[in-house]
UniProtKB/TrEMBL annotation:
Region (Disordered): 1-100
PROSITE patterns for the chain: RIESKE
Signal peptide annotation: none
Full protein name: Rieske domain-containing protein
Organism of this sequence: Tetradesmus obliquus (Green alga)
TM stretches of this protein: 551-569
Compositional bias per record (Low complexity), positions renumbered to this chain: 13-60, 79-100
A GO-annotated cellular component: chloroplast
């Protein structure tokens, strides 16, 4: 995999922006530390005296933690409601680390899109960490990522075009062109060669270019234009199953969808297995409310700023036929890999999730499922040919979480208590994953994504309509080639069914009418008028009527049934088509 780096030097504007982002992150960390000190001094003192300090190393940094005994122990030992509160709840005890161990959001790799779904013929807008970006493919076949603003007058480059003669990105506002390194190569408004060359050599005419690479079918972006050397030395968090022998990618390809709730809410949900039999009742394998069971989750690797954490449980959140061992691995900032092993058969299912922060209250999830169980070759090929079937199932699962998470997020961030440690009450061991993720997010990563500019203080706004939260078309279908193609085919089939049903109904009606004419029960004037309208004489009408009247009665019945069947098929196809747009998910009527 080749890493795209920029040769055009970083403009002063970009350096200022990086400094502002770093200052915002430091301020957020200081505010978080102040809140912890004001509200939890006694608890932290108790934690230090009882537990001491433990150190962990990750990447090239060392991070020190004071881990609460209750969080480090088996979740089954956590105090239950009504028990004496001699030991503080693990949700009240913050992880401690040195400032040098803080996670840097801008110096990490993020997958922003599925390469096979990108349109090589046009620039595509995307968003990461609140930064508007544009993705395009240059004349050499390389994917390039710019900030989505022209240095001339700040017009969005995503509204531009790819110039065939140069293989470069052209701004549609004034025609400036940029090569894959961000260097401006053409300014149509300057005709004098020396002046043109001087202007194009200026740092101020460079587009801001972010390091990018293609790996495992995904386009990865490093959202810090000033640290391309570090980006080249830092590998992205890739799946160990992709392309490995003995593993099959289920569903044919990666799946992606934009969501109407933020990164932290989405990631928290992914570390919460106990919600599955309730929120996904009846739609996710054998998960159902009546099969829900307690979970004993333990920590395999504890929280570090760069290394994340790893959890283990020896059972599923609902009763299954065979025991299952699950290892849940978090690699900051995006990867959540859940490896589920059937201890009887020895087969493993790996659920790979990438959570991408796009904007406040919005995120993107990219998923793929792998198995080492034997899958017939024809089944794998069939699944790849009809990816949209798998995607419909994925969308239904996400919809069942949609309103729950969209509203929950607002209650936490804009409610009476915005401190998760006191706002959440989590006495069960099943919530250990939420505790660990929130500890990383707040104690190691500043408690918030460092959004740029005005986005940093932007609220989440009111609760959106259900049709917006669960809008499958704008969040997935229009960006997915398989689902978009399925919608087009469904519309064509609908048109065919409607047309054929009309023909069958017309033939049936004509046969009945012809039989009446042949029997002489239709007035002569009506027959003559019909013949005249058809451009033929009464003799021709009588001949046609005789031919149709010769049809056996059972054929007329078949024509009528065929017309009804085609209308029914048209209706069913319409319902299938609707599943690519919006289907309201209401939990109250799920039996």
């Amino acid at each position: 995999m080749a890493l795209r780096q920029r040769s055009c030097s970083v403009p002063a504007l970009q350096q200022q922006r990086q400094q502002q982002q770093q200052q915002q992150q430091q301020q957020q960390q200081q505010q978080q530390q102040q809140q912890q000190q004001l509200g939890l001094l006694s608890l932290r003192s108790a934690a230090r005296s009882s537990n001491g300090s433990s150190s962990s190393s990750s990447s090239s940094r060392r991070v020190h933690h004071v881990l609460p005994a209750a969080a480090a122990a088996s979740p089954g030992t956590l105090e239950q409601p009504g028990a004496a509160a001699a030991t503080a709840s693990p949700t009240q005890q913050p992880v401690q680390q040195q400032e040098s161990g803080s996670f840097n959001w801008h110096r990490a790799w993020y997958p922003v899109g599925i390469v096979s779904q990108l349109d090589a013929a046009r620039p595509t807008a995307t968003k990461l960490l609140g930064i508007d970006m544009v993705v395009w493919k240059d004349g050499s076949g390389n994917w390039v990522v710019f900030e989505d603003r022209c240095p001339h007058r700040l017009a969005p480059l995503s509204e531009g075009r790819l110039e065939p003669s140069t293989g470069q990105l052209m701004c549609s506002y004034h025609g400036w062109q940029f090569d894959s390194q961000g260097k401006c190569t053409s300014i149509p408004q300057i005709g004098e060669p020396a002046a043109h060359a001087a202007a194009c050599s200026s740092k101020r005419t460079c587009a801001i270019t972010y390091p990018s690479q293609v790996a495992q079918g995904l386009l990865w972006v490093w959202p810090d234009a000033a640290s391309s050397d570090l980006a080249a030395a830092s590998p992205p968090a890739l799946s160990s199953q992709w392309g490995a022998g003995g593993w099959t990618l289920l569903g044919g390809e990666w799946f992606a969808r934009d969501l109407e709730y933020g990164y932290d809410t989405m990631m928290e949900n992914l570390f919460d297995p106990s919600h599955i039999p309730f929120a996904h009742h009846g739609i996710m394998g054998s998960a159902s409310r009546d099969k829900a069971q307690p979970l004993a989750i333990t920590t395999k690797v504890d929280v570090t700023a760069q290394g994340g954490f790893q959890l283990f449980r020896d059972s599923a959140p609902f009763k299954t036929a065979a025991p299952t061992d699950t290892v849940n691995n978090f690699v900051p900032p995006t990867l959540n890999a859940s490896s589920q092993t059937n201890t009887v058969k020895g087969t493993t299912l790996v659920l790979t999730f990438y959570g991408i922060p796009t904007a406040p209250g919005k995120s993107r999830v990219i998923t793929a499922f792998f198995t080492n169980a034997k899958v017939p070759a024809f089944a794998a090929k069939l699944a790849a040919a009809v990816e949209w079937v798998f995607h419909l199932g994925q969308n239904q699962v996400l919809d069942s979480d949609g309103m729950l998470l969209h509203v929950q997020e607002r209650l936490l961030h804009e409610g009476r208590d915005t401190n998760w440690r006191s706002a959440f009450y989590m006495p069960a061991g099943a919530d250990l994953g939420i505790i660990k993720f929130r500890s990383w997010y707040h104690d190691c990563a500043g408690g918030s994504v460092p959004w740029p500019g005005a986005l940093a203080s932007q609220g989440l706004g009111p609760v959106l309509p259900r049709a917006v939260v669960m809008d499958r078309f704008s969040q997935h279908t229009q960006h997915c080639k398989s689902c978009s193609a399925a919608v087009k085919w469904i519309q064509r089939l609908q048109a065919v069914c409607l047309g054929l049903s009309g023909i069958a109904a017309a033939a049936c009606t004509a046969a009945v009418t012809a039989a009446a004419v042949a029997a002489g029960s239709t007035p002569a004037g009506t027959t003559a008028a019909a013949a005249t309208a058809a451009g033929s004489g009464p003799g021709a009408m009588q001949a046609a009527a005789g031919a149709l009247a010769a049809l056996p009665g059972w054929q007329c019945v078949l024509l009528a049934l065929l017309a009804c069947a085609l209308l029914f098929a048209h209706r069913q196809l319409g319902q299938l088509r609707q599943r690519f747009f919006f289907i309201d998910y209401e939990h109250w009527n799920r039996k």
